[in-house]
Design a protein that fits this description.
- The protein is an all-alpha fold.
- Helix content is 74%, strand content 1%.
- The chain contains 17 helices and two strands.
- It has a two-stranded antiparallel ribbon with strand order 1-2.
């Protein structure tokens, strides 16, 4: 078995190249699919993906990082192996994986449109969120349509595993919604345990990354056990992703994130670093609890960020992200014993746990 160190050398450059290739491969089909939406839903969706301005004028576009579709393609490549297939066979396998990648990205953006409404976020990818431009009803309905399009990608796929893939995606979205519901409930509760928060984050973020990896495996002809192992890999990597995302939600640069500084603190979200700080039993944790008991002004946000740091929330989140990545690699080795064949997956996992925006 190749060592983790050997296969993760130069992960940042490899991940960046893989994400760029994924956008080039997936975005044309994704855009064609979105353009098929009727009327105003198409307009909202095209704006959300950054392909058009609010008035329908073509825009340069920022459809997102493409992490989830990249995981689909990388998982398919890892399970497929070098092989010796004819060119036509390889192209068919790539098409199967692209369908799954588009489905996962549509499902992800269904959640983003809804989350922005629920969280009252006013910025997404450096521009006003769709609901602030088109209104809540149109944003929610367009999100619903995206989820339907995601399932359509899979149910119309002639691949033998398409039914299994569709079932996995539906099950994942139900779990994801349960995670979102728990996240909302936490905001109304004064006491949330770290275990509860970890379970919520696994459902809200890990489930879809795990599903992406599993769908990639299925598109490559993998069996249920391999797909389950890939799902477990994605879930662990997804929790690491969420931990880093929560850190960015507190200390991220608005110029890079497209959101105001400390946006999660302003909303008094019970993110993982915050809950780690609140349950730390420290004076800084008690100070944070007092700040979270009332509205947050600009100065309060700065004090809260400092309190999270002093209570150990920042260090805990960084260390736990590294631990989860170790678990992810263990799960990956169940499906791909030679980790050298999974370099793309490892590079992506390393990228999401080392990113700063």
């Amino acid at each position: 078995m190749a060592t983790t160190e050997a296969v993760t050398t130069g992960e940042g450059q490899e991940a960046a190249a893989l994400l760029e290739r994924t956008r080039e491969t997936v975005n044309p089909r994704l855009r064609r699919t979105v353009e098929g939406l009727p009327g105003s839903m198409r307009r909202v969706a095209m704006y959300h993906f950054g392909w058009e301005d609010a008035d329908g004028t073509p825009a340069a576009g920022n459809a997102g990082k493409a992490i989830r579709p990249a995981l689909v393609l990388a998982a398919a490549r890892a399970l497929r192996g070098p092989g010796g297939e004819e060119k036509e066979g390889r192209e068919k396998e790539q098409e199967d994986a692209v369908r799954a990648a588009v489905a996962v990205e549509l499902a992800h953006n269904f959640t983003l449109l809804h989350d922005d409404v629920i969280d009252k976020d006013v910025r997404r990818r450096g521009r006003p969120t769709a609901w602030t431009v088109f209104g809540v009803p149109d944003a929610v309905i367009t999100g619903d349509a995206m989820m339907a399009l995601a399932l359509k990608q899979l149910t119309e796929d002639p691949h033998p595993a398409s039914a299994s893939a569709a079932t996995r995606l539906v099950t994942c979205v139900i779990e994801l919604c349960a995670g979102q519901q728990a996240d909302c409930a936490f905001e109304q509760r004064p006491d949330v345990s770290l275990d509860e928060c970890l379970r919520m984050a696994t459902a809200k973020t890990g489930a879809l990354l795990g599903c992406a990896c599993a769908l990639g495996a299925l598109s490559a002809g993998a069996g249920p056990d391999e797909a389950d192992a890939m799902d477990a890999f994605g879930r662990e990597a997804g929790l690491a992703f969420q931990l880093i995302d929560d850190l960015i939600g507190i200390w991220g640069d608005p110029g890079h994130t497209g959101k105001p500084a400390g946006a999660d603190l302003t909303a008094r979200k019970k993110s993982l670093p915050v809950v780690a700080a609140l349950t730390s039993g420290t004076a800084a944790g008690a100070e944070l609890a007092e700040l979270y008991a009332g509205p947050m002004t600009g100065d309060d946000v700065r004090r809260a960020a400092d309190a999270v740091d002093r209570a150990g929330g920042r260090d805990w989140a960084q260390a736990h992200a590294a631990d989860r990545m170790g678990r992810a690699v263990q799960q990956l080795s169940r499906a791909v014993p030679d980790l050298g064949a999974a370099g793309g997956l490892l590079a992506l996992a390393e990228f999401v746990t080392r990113r700063t925006r």
